[in-house]
Amino acid sequence: MTTNTPGGVRTLGTLRAADGKGIVRLEDRFDTDLDDLWSALTDPDRLARWLGEVDGDLRLGGEFRAHYFASGWEGIGRVEVCEPPHRLLILTKSPDEPDGVIEATLTGDGDQTILVIEDRGLPLQQIAAYGAGDQVHIEDLAAYLAGRDRCDARARWQELHPAYRQLAADVL
């Protein structure tokens, strides 16, 4: 889902709450097939080109350490569901943030693939910040797949954050 908010900022996400926690859902379409997008999301060498450093066991039940470039997030994750090339669900833990759940669902559509990411378990008061940050990651993925460099994460986050604050107003 793509939303154009007042001010002309294109947002990929929607925000909602469940059980007192925030959920960011982003959806985008990529000009690549399922297997290539799955590889970009799960191969540590490819992740290092757009998301961050990921070390460990990325198989079902495996644990890994990660450091994301754009957001600076550092923590550990555990692979809870791994159904190549359609679904990946990981649990995350970080000393500075609440435990979270990130689920990626991929659907082929001709020569393209639709990616839906849900980031769950977020503090409601910070859901706009997470929404903007998650979109920066998705845009970095798109840039990588198109052969471009990652964006200036801080500048892009600052551009996106007001639009996500508007979306968050309906959730809070």
From TrEMBL:
CDD domains listed in its UniProt record: SRPBCC_CalC_Aha1-like_6 (cd08899)
Name the UniProt record assigns to this protein: SRPBCC family protein
Domain of life where this protein originates: Bacteria
Pfam family, one: AHSA1
Similarity field: Belongs to the AHA1 family.
Activator of Hsp90 ATPase homologue 1/2-like C-terminal domain span: 32-145
InterPro entries: ASHA1/2-like_C, START-like_dom_sf
Coiled coil: none
